């Protein structure tokens, strides 16, 4: 049985009425148990990539395909992808008035597992995870993301990750807006989630969230393409020296 | 005459008295058909603008906010007319001024702008009167904005307290056209204002900004309508005013999303400051909607100024009066800033300041 | 590109079969259609009205003939008043115990879940079936506290006659509008409630209507008087089977809230889709008192419904929370009215409305602040959700402020279900249909949480059924 969880082949993506091209020819393979990091200057298409993997209808796939556990999901609806085991932690999570965090999680878990969770077990688990993430227990009764600060929204996304236990976690700048302690907590949450059979793709600009994580690959996305792939040391290099140098070097790389 | 003026697009309870303008707005007889052109001052026109004899669009094809009965009245009775055709983008602001004088007390003005594709124009209309004249000023301005044209109409009304005023505007916007109407209304015994914009073309937009100040026994009656037909059309209506003395005002603001006006956006907001025991404010902000994919919002805030804002300003050293003035000026700024004549701006600002001081609660 | 728009949920007619069970009509006494002096006279006699009520009915009939049908609001042309039988009384005289009520009538209420609700700790149920109060009960505790909960006919001729006479149609006079005049002439059945000083009625009192005979109108009158410092929660819910002939509901609710008293009035209106619902509800609140309206409008063909509150006493308060869901063939014109007639009064109106499948939903409001209502505050918030481009949603609010020392705020929003929100929920495994139902349920939640549990459940079920368009 193949170890490949996610296989993106030559993916081209455009957006809007004028079909503005964002991604062209992206190739990416993630195997089970791996942690990948995606970095790049703002606006190059990192969010677009993970949104497209999730099936965001705003984006149009102009070329290539997406395979999940060997199955072609390029045309699948979002909820089908979710039930197959893909999870996206949103950069700007939506506010859903009138729906409590607990009610929502219970419904989502039921949708993904195919049957409603046992109440007692679910509530116990929810309480434990909220505590581990430092989220006030009263938030379970609050309407999903309504009035939450940026940091609280991000933590709530990780709470969902831990409760839903997907096979592939796509984390879109989960650390932005969080204070130092919160980043540590979230990082721990990711560590708790990660094991030999599931995988993570993290979009980030900072090193803090990566501390304590066993990074397998770091990819640089620039101008709609992955221009460089390296090991975890690549991340530290970018963070210290920025992308400018990278661009020069990647050009050199391509010349070879 | 009992024409129906400033009709609310969808009727509501009659006891509120807002379904149409009151009896005090019955239109006057226009005594002579002699031209009142000498009461009209106009600036010299640049080469991109041409004065034309007849407006190319019929009255019945462009209805003002006051209503077709009013438009017909102007069609029949106008004693001064001024129609402009704009051919290209125009830097210079065109200015006109109508004046009510003792020998020409009833002025019925028929005005219009026909903006060709891609052209632009700013036109400021001032409405004034001689101290001794007690008259009537009725005006209609039609704006036909062809593709991608931009028109800004600024209206400043500073008539004396024995003169009554009616002012209708009818707007038709083609694809990509942007029309802006800016109104500063301070005078007259009573005034009826009605604008209606037909946003037919896709991505056309309409902005309406109004400031007013009433005191003593002034009565103002507004009927502003924006009809969205085209896709991605946008309306922004902003009104800020002060009611003092024994004055009263009715503002009807309607945003109507017709079926097919996909992705249209409409915002309406009103801020009213009420001073004194005897004022009366009526506000009717309508949103009518037959299209799912739109965004419509309106907000109205009526009554007093925000205490926390006043406190903040006082904590920075202003007196309570200075703080209030500052907040009110802030509300009026969006309109005053658009008046392209510094002296006029100053005059209006000091009039407002003086009237505020006169009417401040003791 | 996949597009949510191309796969919109097409919602079908909600399954109303549980509400549409018709009994064959066996009326013991039927008035011939149309409205004449003779008919009003007949009604008065049959009910053994006291003399003053008979006179009152006649005066109302005069007003009815004078006043015009309103020139605003949904079209009433198809309502042929002459065809409406005004009075139908089923075969049974009033019963004290549920077990003694005739079986078919009991069956109807059984199917609609009334006895269960009664068993579940409600204080008492008055059930109306075709113009007469069939069954009445009141538990001992409420009665021991001195709470009077009886049908209007008994109240009219019993020991409370004076109190009723003092209050009857004083808040909604027959001269108010045509259907108030009609009500004054032919009213029949209804509930009278009196809560004495300081008494807090812990469990909600509930009344349930049903309209059965084809063409019959409902003109029930509810009169509630809550004395100083007392508390009452009253629940009204109703249903009717579907008929071809127009059905008219021109009831009237009058609520007198005493000093520092508190009244909550909850309604879920689920009349079937041929009903004309022209109900008038009004409350008057004395010093320090408060009235809370909770209202869910789902049924009827045409509705004119604007509970009105008169804040007469200093510091009095009004709260209105409502939801309206207009589907195919419905034109629901609903909202609220409030008059601030004293200093330091406050009001909050929060409404939500949903339109789908060609339905028309109109929010109409009136906020009046009288001169002298210094220090008053009012805020109105209405939000409308359109679920497709075949429907309509109109917002017609009006404010008339005559006091400068008052704060009045208003905001309205209209839009559609956010596609990003749908995507977010789908990314957590919900199907598109479920995601939309969730969002609409969430939209209605502020109202649902104000209702007692079984009503909230009924409301959520109604919404889910409407959203999913599938048979239950």
Automatic annotation (TrEMBL), chain A:
It holds the Pfam family ABC_tran. Residues 6-248 form the ABC transporter domain. Keywords: ATP-binding, Nucleotide-binding. Coiled coil: none annotated. It comes from the Bacteria. InterPro entries: AAA+_ATPase, ABC_transporter-like_ATP-bd, ABC_transporter-like_CS, FeS-cluster_ATPase_SufC, P-loop_NTPase. One of its GO terms (molecular function) is ATP binding. Belongs to the ABC transporter superfamily. Ycf16 family. This is Fe-S cluster assembly ATPase SufC. It comes from Blautia liquoris.
TrEMBL record, chain B:
Residues 106-330 form the SUF system FeS cluster assembly SufBD core domain. One of its GO terms (biological process) is iron-sulfur cluster assembly. It comes from the Bacteria. Belongs to the iron-sulfur cluster assembly SufBD family. This is SufD family Fe-S cluster assembly protein. It comes from Blautia liquoris.
From TrEMBL, chain C:
Residues 46-206 form the SUF system FeS cluster assembly SufBD N-terminal domain. Belongs to the iron-sulfur cluster assembly SufBD family. Residues 209-443 form the SUF system FeS cluster assembly SufBD core domain. This is Fe-S cluster assembly protein SufB. PANTHER family: FES CLUSTER ASSEMBLY PROTEIN SUF, UPF0051 PROTEIN ABCI8, CHLOROPLASTIC-RELATED. InterPro entries: Fe-S_cluster_assembly_SufBD, SUF_FeS_clus_asmbl_SufB, SUF_FeS_clus_asmbl_SufBD_core, SUF_FeS_clus_asmbl_SufBD_sf, SufBD_N. Coiled coil: none annotated. Pfam families: SUFBD_core, SufBD_N. One of its GO terms (biological process) is iron-sulfur cluster assembly. It comes from the Bacteria.
